[in-house]
Structure formats: structure tokens, C-alpha cells
Amino acid sequence: MLIVVYNDFMIQITYPDDITREIDSVYRNKRDFESFEVAKLIKIIQKKTDLKVTVMRNPVVAEQLRNYILSRFKKSTTNTI
User: Fold this and answer.
1) In angstroms, rounded to a whole number, what is the distance separating the alpha carbons of residues 32 and 12?
2) Residue 80 has pLDDT above 60, yes or no
3) How many Å apart are CA 60 and CA 78, to the nearest integer?
4) Number of structural domains, the chain?
5) What is the C-alpha separation between 9 and 73, in angstroms, rounded?
6) CA 81 to CA 79: how far, in whole Å?
7) pTM for the complete prediction?
8) Is the per-residue pLDDT at 74 higher than 60?
9) Is 26 part of a structural domain of the chain?
């Protein structure tokens, strides 16, 4: 599942289990950016498949989710978020 926050909207995208497992395999045990297989991920997400997409508009929940997501990133002088 992927959740995107855009302004007052939350967009939830649910992938089939087989695609989810493939995406998880790309991220699993990656310790740094250099070992991340971008080409493999792109190939997976370009596959034709059925997705479940849910769009919700709720400014309060969107703001809470946005704040939670941003809190998961380390604070540094190079962050531009």
C-alpha cells in the first residue's frame, strides 16, 4: 500500500500481493542509496496490473498524516522539506 498526501487529499494505492512482494524485495536489507536497485523498482511499477485507488479529502487528517511522515525524516541542515 502506498499513501500520498497532497494538499487536503490522501491518496491510498493498494497493489496486488505479488507486486507488493516484488517491491518489498527491492527495499529489503538496503543499507544505503548505492545498493538500491532503481531500475528493478521501475520495471516492477511499470507492470500492467489492477490497482485499488482511494481518494479522500479531509484537511485535518491530511495535515496529521503529513506531519507524521515528515517527523520520520532526520533533521539536518540539508533537508529541503
Assistant:
1) 27
2) no
3) 28
4) 1
5) 21
6) 6
7) 0.66
8) yes
9) yes
Helices (H), ranges, the chain: 17-27, 38-45, 59-71
Q: Are residues 23 and 40 in contact, defined by beta-carbon separation less than 8 angstroms?
A: no
Other Cβ atoms less than 10 A from the Cβ of 10: the count is: 18
Is there a domain that residue 76 lies in? no
Per-residue pLDDT reduced to its tens digit, 27-66: 887 777 777 788 998 999 899 999 999 999 999 999 999 9
Residue 48 structural domain: 2-71
Q: Residues near 54 by Cβ (< 8 Å), separated by ≥ 6? A: 11, 12, 14
State the pLDDT at residue 21.
94
**Is 53 among the domain residues?**
yes
| Mean pLDDT score across all residues of the chain | 88
Structural domain includes residue 80: no
